[in-house]
Amino acid sequence: MRAFDHSRRGLVTAGVLGFAGLMAGCSGEDAKEVGAVEDLMREHGILRRVLLIYAESVPKLRTDAASVLATHLNKAAQLFRDFGEDYHERKLEEAYIFPRIEKAGGPAAGLVDPLLKQHQRGREITQFILGATASGTVSAADAEPLARAFEAFVRMYQNHTAREDTVIFPAWKNALPASEIEEMGDKFEEIEKAQFGGDGFDAAVKQVDGIEHALGFADLAQFTAPPPPRAGTSPAKGGNATAKVPLSSPLPPSWIP
After folding, report:
1. pTM score of the predicted model
2. In Å, how far are 50, 55, 134, 157 from 163, measured between CA atoms?
3. What is the rounded CA–CA span in Å between residue 131 and residue 144?
4. CA-CA distance, 151 to 22, in Å (whole number)?
5. Are 179 and 98 in contact (CB under 8 A)?
6. What is the DSSP secondary structure assignment for residue 240, as one 8-state letter?
7. What pLDDT is recorded for position 211?
8. What Cα–Cα distance (Å) separates residue 49 from each residue in 44, 208, 221, 249?
9. Do 152 and 251 contact (CB within 8 A), yes or no?
């Protein structure tokens, strides 16, 4: 009888362990799936990397515009248009997210109108960037307007995406039942494949990575901040503080040709 109990106990244990292993495997696969909100936010990551390319190009535009590799800035603007404006904004946010936010009402709905206006302004700026960099060089006449366009775009879009990530997307998720959120994730994936013929995100990562390498912005370590000055020490005395270089004031909407 004891031998039977021991054998039965072993079978039960093996069964439990096998089921646990199966569930662990399923959980691992589920964990790899990208949800709709995560997908939207990582797409913002691609667009932010383009914005950083713009911001890092401003000093050179002002000091040595002839040396600027405008071909790669043009590629960055084209990526922003294809992935950001034509896909992320038009096909996802404007088609599915903003209408649902407006329907749900609340504080988030009040952001939809300025966000839409910023989408349109961004498209105008992108068009200007594409035109100013189309020849492969930046003319002396375009250098300062392009630098200021970059600054204005970066300022606007950093605020824009921050509100979407922290207000709009959470409100959209809360407005939908869990089953519909899952459906939206599948829907967004279908749109992405139809738009790009495959994984648009992975392709965009490769594109922006190539642009960063070409322009010398690929090494993340170069952007590590210097140590702060010691308390009570001015930059002149301490010698370890960097001078603050203020960005020029963003131009009003009327600057766009």
Report:
1. 0.79
2. 18, 20, 32, 10
3. 14
4. 52
5. no
6. -
7. 98
8. 9, 7, 15, 22
9. yes
